[in-house]
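#onboarding

Welcome to the new folks! Below is a worked example of what a typical request in this channel looks like: someone posts a single protein sequence, and someone else replies with the predicted structure as tokens. Don't worry about understanding the tokens yet, we'll cover that in week two.

Example request:
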Amino acid sequence: SLKMASDSPESLMTLCTDYCLRNLEGTLCYLLDNETLRLHPDIFLPSEICDKLVNEYVELVKTDSIFEPHESFFTLFSDPRSTRLARIHLREQIVQDQDLEAIRKQDLVELYLTNCEKLTAKSLQTLVSFSHTLISLSLFGCCNIFYEEENPGGCEDDCLVNPTRQVLVKDFTFEGFRRLRFLNLGRLIEGVNVETLLRPLASLAALDLSGIQLNDVGFLTQWKDTLVSLVLYNMDLSEEHIQVIAQLRKLRHLDISRDHLSSYYKFKLTRRVLNLFVEHLVNLTSLDISGHTMLENCTIPNMEEKMGQTSIEPAKSSIAPFRGLKRPLQFLGLFETSLCRLTHIPAYKVSGDKNEEQVLNAIEAYTEHRPEITSRAINLLFDIARIERCSQLLRALQLVITALKCHKDDKNIQVTGSAALFYLTNSEYRMEQSVKLRRQVIQVVLNGMESYQEVTVQRNCCLTLCNFSIPEELEFQYRRVNELLLNILNQSRQDESIQRIAVHLCNALVCQVDNDHKEAVGKMGFVMTMLKLIQKKLADKTCDQVMEFSWSALWNITDETPDNCEMFLNYSGMKLFLECLKEFPEKQELHRNMLGLLGNVAEVKELRPQLMTSQFISVFSNLLESKADGIEVSYNACGVLSHIMFDGPEAWGICEPHREEVVKRMWAAIQSWDINSRRNINYRSFEPILRLLPQGISPVSQHWATWALYNLVSVYPDKYCPLLIKEGGIPLLKDVIKMGSARQETKEMAR
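Example response:
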């Protein structure tokens, strides 16, 4: 079902929401005074649609670099008569005090504010306006929401000397929040009195106090008849805490896990504590004790067990205290504890580090609020993907994508996540992945490249892109990928390996794509960037892959694209060509790439006069005798000269070498080639070759063109016969046979 789920198209609702958010002005809104968004007066939207608009908006701002946030977005939802909100999830820097203020008339039922560090005590006052309807509230990581700005002295002049100080608000409580059942105060700022804050709440069902240090939690017993979920992640526990927890008889979910790297904990788990939980908390279905050190051995040796058969029956549990459970737990968190490696664990889902299933459960459980744990779990997944084979590939990919999206600015997650993606997208897993999923991977990889100039992330992202079919799979983000790669290549200090991968990707991206793509990339500075790389390599006197790929990329991007050919000439490309030829006389691959590119330049009539100098013509003539890369260098040199000859004797504006002498050398070269040569070249169109057939001004150019066609259609008939027919080559060849000026051997070949 996961396979099918990942392959189905987006729902119409999702597509419409996305379209409207990207085109607010053209759909739901108009611009007032050219700056403020206003809702069209005849629009009325129910909460099902408004919630989705707000939540998707937050997601887009967070994960799509091209999406522009709107200052006045939240004001669209200020009037409940036209737009209704009920359940919204806001995150990070996207939301500010005035945004919540804008929607204060809404009857919100659920409000999640996660890591909204820009919210101050002004927003606490706004919360009061939702107090009569709010059932679920999360203030997780909103570290400034209990601070207000105080103006010392209140005097205007004095303020310049003393900027505003932040003062903790002491008098706010949840008085009047009569319906509030679910509350997350994770990572609440120190100094707020939690007990006073919560006392007015009559019947709490779920409470999260992650990362808060409380010596006395006795006040929790006031909800012993209603509390079903309690999270005390990273709270330093003591015997008193345990006694209080044991009284909360209705608990179904208890999380006392901790990050074992974060700080020193005096508390150690014992057999007695676990026995106490099993005995008193009879409704427990989920327990998390990840990161804890066991003070004593709780395990039951199972020598008599047959290897490989595992059981989740409590009676067979390898963890002694859990033999007292009435039924297996739905979830048991054992990440970074020794217990997760035991054979019989009485739970349907276990988070741990023993195998792929446990590791994926950990990533799933901890991604949203515990990036510090998640990055270590993804690191374990990375090892599994690298060394073994992932059996739950789609789940693994989706979890890593979610983590990377959720923690765009967390360096550890970006490094481990991008490395895991490389292994999860490689060719052996290819068949199992849908287009939609692979596109999601590309999106998060590009996000990573944008947000992180860090070398490891950049390298991992570039390597991951190499796992895709280029250009096809990257076509939907074509501009963006090219901009990012050029950006990497234009940095002054460069990592060798990244440079090599980035140039390889650039080359692949401009190979076999439409001319408008090539023109667009040319305008981004592609030609200039490649020439700069070549210049650097020349200065170092190195001819490596970067040098060869850069020339290859220029060959590809100038193919039938006159603007890019002109750019090559304007940025002293010919000077670099001559210098490379002189510096690296033995590098065959390099010579082939350079001459292929000059062949493209020579196809442009307006640019040919720039090639008409004694120096260039002599170089091309000498290369006719080159045996580099089979016939390729000689063939390309002859192609360049064929186009120049096609302009006739009057265009030959030089004394040395003589035109006739060059023509003679061209005939000799063509006659020396093996007509059955296999080729290192790829034609998308024969148009530039066919152009040389119907003319009598340069029989040698006509012969070169006929030879080229004959070789390609006889060695690769399946590929090139259809192309020759489609582009109207047959009647042109028939005309050559009848032509008086054509040489006999040309006619033979044409026939």
